[in-house]
Design brief:
Blueprint: H1 7-27, H2 31-41, H3 47-72, H4 77-98, H5 104-123, H6 137-157, H7 162-174, H8 178-200, H9 208-232, H10 234-265
Length: about 270
C-alpha cells in the first residue's frame, strides 16, 4: 500500500496532518502545514495529486470540527447555508481550473491580501468579540452566497488560508463573533473540500491510502483544536488567527517572491 513511500516520510506527513487539524479547527490555515509538507516530502508527485490527497485528509478533520462547534455554538445558518451551497459550485470550478492554468498571479497576490487581513484584524481590537449581526435575513443569505462562491472558488483553485478568509469575512461583513464565524467557516469548508474532491478523485488526482492515513491524524488534531477554541473563547481565537495569518504571510511570501529574488541576485 505504501511501498513507494519511506517510513520517515509517512511519519512526518502524519505529524503534519495532526498539526494541520489542530490549527485548522481553531482558526483555519491548516494548509499552512499540510500542503507544504506534502509538496516538500513528495516532490515527484504532480501538484494536482498532492492537492487532492490533502483534501481527503482535510475534509475528515474539518467535518469533525464542524460537529464539535455545532454542538457547542449557535451556528448562523441563515448565512452559512447559502454560503455552503455556493461554495460547492465555486470550489468545483476552482479545482477544475487549477488543472488547466497557472496559479502564479494569485500566488503573488496572496501575501498582500494576507497583510491587509492582519493589519485590519490587529487594529480592530474589538473585532469579533461580540456577536452582533449587521444584516437582515435576506441580505445575510445574499452575501452568504457571494462569500461562499468567491472563497469556494479560491479554495478549489489554490487553497492556503481559506478558513481564515472565511472567518474574517463572517466577522467583518456579517458582524459575527469569532466563535460563530469559526463554526460557520467549518461548514463552508466541508463543502469546499467535498467539491474539490468531486473533481480531483474521478480525475485520478488522489493517493487514497495516504489521504486516509493522514485523515486519522488530522481528525485527532481537529478534536484538540476545536475543544481549545470553544473552551477559551473569542479572544483566544482572535490571537490565534493573528498568529496563523502572520505565519501564512511569511510562508506565502517566501514561496511567491524568493525564486524571483534568488534569480535577481544570481
Amino acid at each position: 500500500m505504501f511501498e513507494n513511500i519511506e517510513l520517515w516520510v509517512l511519519l512526518a506527513l502524519c505529524v503534519a496532518a495532526f498539526g494541520a487539524g489542530l490549527i485548522d479547527a481553531m482558526v483555519g490555515g491548516g494548509g499552512l502545514i499540510q500542503i507544504p509538507a506534502l509538496f516538500g516530502l513528495m516532490p515527484s508527485q504532480g501538484h494536482a495529486t498532492l492537492l487532492g490527497t490533502n483534501k481527503i485528509s482535510s475534509v475528515v478533520g474539518t467535518t469533525f470540527a464542524a460537529y464539535k462547534y455545532a454542538k457547542a455554538i449557535q451556528v448562523p445558518w441563515n448565512a452559512v447555508v447559502p454560503a455552503t451551497a455556493m461554495a460547492l459550485i465555486g470550489a468545483y470550478c476552482g479545482a477544475y481550473i487549477v488543472t488547466q492554468i497557472s496559479t502564479e498571479v494569485l500566488r503573488l497576490m496572496l501575501p498582500l491580501l494576507l497583510i491587509a487581513v492582519a493589519i485590519y484584524t490587529f487594529l480592530r481590537k474589538d473585532l469579533g468579540s461580540v456577536h452582533a449581526p449587521k444584516l437582515d435575513k435576506n441580505r445575510e443569505r445574499f452575501f452568504g452566497a457571494c462569500v461562499g462562491l468567491a472563497i469556494g472558488f479560491y479554495d478549489g483553485f489554490f487553497g492556503p488560508g481559506t478558513g481564515s478568509f472565511l472567518m474574517v469575512a463572517f466577522v467583518v461583513f456579517f458582524g459575527f463573533d469569532f466563535l460563530a464565524a469559526t463554526a460557520g467557516a467549518k461548514m463552508v469548508n466541508i463543502a469546499c473540500n467535498l467539491a474539490s474532491l468531486a473533481w480531483f478523485a474521478p480525475a485520478g488526482h488522489v493517493i487514497v491510502a495516504l489521504g486516509l492515513l493522514m485523515a486519522v491524524f488530522n481528525l485527532a488534531g481537529a478534536r484538540v483544536g476545536a475543544s481549545l477554541a470553544i473552551r477559551k473563547g473569542a479572544g483566544f481565537v482572535r490571537k490565534a488567527l493573528l498568529a496563523v495569518v502572520f505565519l501564512l504571510i511569511l510562508r506565502t511570501s517566501y514561496d511567491s517572491y524568493w525564486p524571483y529574488l534568488k534569480a535577481w541576485f544570481a
